[in-house]
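We treat protein structure as text, and this decision shapes the records that our systems exchange. Such a record has a labelled line for the sequence and another for the backbone structure tokens. The record that follows is passed on verbatim for readers who wish to inspect the format:
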Amino acid sequence: MAKQTDAMTSGRRQDLCMSTDVSGMIECRPGARLWHPEDEDSAWEAGIDLFLLNRGNAYGGLACLFGIRNSFGFHPLAEGRGLPDDASQGLRDEFAAYGGPDDVHGTTWLTWAELAATDWQETNASGTRSRAEVAGTDTD
């Protein structure tokens, strides 16, 4: 999920000063290793809040992974998928606390398998920046 934070001046919203922060959860399915991913006991569980990993507005990463603030011209990996149907209750509770679909911009999700299969050398529209440069292991 990405939450847009509006700057307020005299009670009026100023879109020119708007920033975008990432919020959400990394989820895991521990039962999938024991039984099978489709087993009823292999439900998703909230693992770690992304707030703990957030070091600032990493707009290049948001653009190439999720299509948010994509002035870079990346083909995003996971744009606009919404909240997963099988999301954990912990994630659903956090999503509701942020205001749900009416107040949260860019809700989407991405799997570890998709990240592992990503071409990290793929570049933006101008060919000047790779996914690895803006969202790789040495970035925010």
Summary: Confidence is low (pLDDT under 50) at residues 1-16. The radius of gyration is 17 Å. The longest strand covers residues 12-22.
